[in-house]
Amino acid sequence: MPAVLWAEDSFPCYRIEFPERALRFEAGHCWSAEALAAAAGGTWQPFPPPQWHANAVISHMDYLPLVPAPAVFAATTAAHCARHKRVKPQGTWDSHKILQKNWDKFAGAIVEHHLEGLPRSFP
To answer: What is the pTM of this model?
Structure first.
């Protein structure tokens, strides 16, 4: 069993209530740009073009052929992932590097920090 890393008072806090705009969906589209930003609690840099949508949010390249396009990549790190699992990090991996090499396969991305090398128009 993995060793617990975080004290009980530092467990991640997950929202269970979301703004109404995060719950608006169009037929045939899983996520609008506004709904995804509201659910993730972030902002778009840059905001996607009109009529943009995503049908999946994935965190690993292996999932891409298994989900309906277009997909958004949710980049993370070993440390961030371990915090949510409440275990010690296994390695020092950073999936932001995967995004830098494969951005053209996605409609956009959720990232923890600014990434060099992505087109300025990539949401």
So the answer is: 0.79
DSSP 113: S
Work out whether the CA dihedral 71, 100, 62, 113 comes out positive or negative: negative
Beta bridge pairs of residue 94 = 77
Other CB atoms closer than 10 Å to residue 78's CB: what's the count? 15
pLDDT exceeds 70 at position 9:
no
Q: For residue range 54-96, what is the model confidence (pLDDT) as tens digits?
A: 999 999 999 999 999 999 999 999 888 888 778 888 889 999 9
- How far apart, in whole angstroms, are the C-alpha atoms of residue 11 and residue 6? 7
User: Strand pairing of 56-58 and 71-74?
Assistant: parallel
**Which tokens is 4 given?**
């617990």
What is the separation of C-alpha 1 from the centre of its chain, rounded to a whole number of angstroms?
27
**Biggest CA-to-CA distance, the chain:** 47
- b/e code 40-57 from CB counts within 10 Å (16+ = b): eeeeeeeebeeebbbebb
